[in-house]
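Predict the 3D structure for this chain.
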Amino acid sequence: MSWPPFLKAELINAIYKCNNSSTPSLDKLLWNHLKAIMKDDGCTNKLIDIANICINLGHWPFHFKTSTTIIIPKLNKMLYDSTKSFCPIVLLNTTGKLFEKMIRERLQFLLISNNFVHPCQLGGLKHYSSTDAGVALTRIIQSGWVKNLYTSTVAFDITQFFPSLNHQLLSFILNKVGFDHKVSKFFSNYLVNRKTKYL
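Done. Predicted structure below.
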């Protein structure tokens, strides 16, 4: 499955909904800085070139892999003696986040258009929110009521899924479904040697 070069429209779409008042990242750039830079077509084209080169070389630069984690105490807690009393916020390189948004949109489009995503998968996909999951669950329950059946549900959240992802298995799957070799090479590099520092 080919991975064509990114287009200007994809870059614009990726940055369009980004909040201008978000916290500055490690590179001290805000989204409105990048939006201002992108008013110049030459700069926009250079950003697109960088994103395409990352995929073509199968390499995610180290400065995009480096993050800062800030631990913020949650308000109105009686005690601050457990990790649940704090909220970690991870700051990444803004340009890297922009490219990740483009890659995520492209990957999701390719996976959905080729029926690689199970129809029961609701989380993490465009147009498949928790509301959609609630509507689907309500339909299943009501269908059961018509047949005088009782419905039970089990809900769970898979925490820390990304860090525990088997990197070699992901590469194998990407190759097996027919992605270009450069794409699986890129994701293999994207997943490794990440570093964070705490403030």
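The first strand starts at residue 66 and ends at 73.
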